[in-house]
Amino acid sequence: MAWTEARSAAHAAGLAARPGPVSVPLAEADGLTLAAALTARTDLPAFPAATVDGYAVRGPGPWSVAGRVLAGAVPEPLRAGTAVQVATGAMVPAGTEQIIRAEEARRRPDGRVDGRGRPEREWREPGAEATCGDELAPAGTPVTPALIGLAAVCGHDSLPVIPAVRAAVLVFGDELLTAGLPGRGRVRDGLGPQLPGWLRRLGALPAAGFAPLGPVPDSLTAQASALEAALAHADLVCTAGGTMRGPVDHLRPALAALGGRYVVDRVAVRPGFPMVLAEVPAPDGRPRFVAGLPGNPQSAIAALVSLVAPLLRGLAGRPEPPLPTARLAERVPGRGTFARLVPVRVERGVAEPVGHTGAAMLRGLAGSDGFAVIPPGTDGEAGAGVRWAPLPLLPGQRP
């Protein structure tokens, strides 16, 4: 499958399987996605609110001071020839014609106040920011702290959201170590420690009740059993390794044993072409997903960006945005009929390829911002504009 087609298929599968909305308190909504449009439940502000400290006055001065209004109080209407001291944010009395700023007002010996107001109105009218019923954010909008604050000042105590995806990670391979120095044919697991962090940045949460397993042995029985255990707790299981068709690659037989259906089975891209995305039926009728990432670390992260990122956006009910563009700092050869993903560091719209980018390497990836996409059948020429796929960011961040 072509790389762009595979991304679209992953996103569409997520959208079709997205869970129904739930209502959560504002404090629990950060990082989730609005399941319905956010609308104002009241005018914003809901009353005329002073924007400065000073004196609300009516009629010509000097004015007799008839008291003061602090934030949270409801004042009496203002009579002609009188003034009321007001605080920033306080409700402006009905009948106010102007507010004299505190620093520009003069208190006379007889107790009255004199001064000259500025031409602009020194209070916010009801509905200046929003009127009751206005749509403030559409469904599919990521919930950020600022959006939570906006919802609160408009009178919301909770928000309708798409619940977070529960994710689990399984790493396959008899050759993997989880501690100590590599050597004598054994290598350290470089994916198990990093994949949960990437998934968190994509908005997924660790699956409750599922203890992450160490490297799963290279046997069909062990891998099918581990997958079944993980799927009992998770909406998405990311596996690493076993995606080829060699003598110790058991992911496909394990998926077949679980009734899996392929959404994507191999992609015309380098690195990462043996990546897999499958739906697995569940008792509740909503499919669970298995994303099979290649065992080579850079290939696995390329697959994460290619398939898991759009899948999770679909499951969250979010649209798939167009990839950003940048200019290549140097020439990058293509990979024939395959697309090529090249780790790059992007600054001020310029994508600089990084070194140490073999499929098994992580050094270059650790210093990159994402992958420049060289379309099939082309080379990336220096100065040419290319799309690039950002590595996952923290919720609310933008590339």
What does this protein structure show overall?
This protein has 399 residues and is α/β, with parallel strands linked by helices. The chain folds into four domains: 3-19 and 164-315, Molybdenum Cofactor Biosythetic Enzyme, Chain A; 23-41 and 139-162, Molybdopterin biosynthesis moea protein, domain 2, CATH 3.90.105; 49-124, Molybdopterin biosynthesis moea protein, domain 3 (Molybdopterin biosynthesis moeA protein, domain 3, Beta Complex), CATH 2.170.190.11; 325-390, Beta-clip (Beta Barrel), CATH 2.40.340.10. The chain has seven helices and 27 strands. It has helices at residues 3-17, 145-153, 195-201, 220-231, 251-257, 297-315, 363-366, and strands at 22-25, 33-34, 38-39, 49-50, 54-57, 64-69, 82-86, 98-101, 105-107, 113-115, 123-124, 135-137, 158-162, 166-171, 176-177, 187-188, 205-206, 236-240, 261-265, 269-270, 276-280, 288-293, 325-328, 339-347, 350-353, 370-374, 385-390. A six-stranded mixed sheet has the order 17-14-18-22-21-19, with helices on both faces. A five-stranded mixed barrel has the order 23-25-24-26-27. A four-stranded mixed sheet has the order 6-7-5-8, with no helix packed on it. A hairpin with a 7-residue loop joins strand 21 (276-280) and strand 22. Helix 1 packs across helix 6 (297-315) and helix 4 (220-231) packs across helix 5 (251-257). The mean pLDDT is 93.
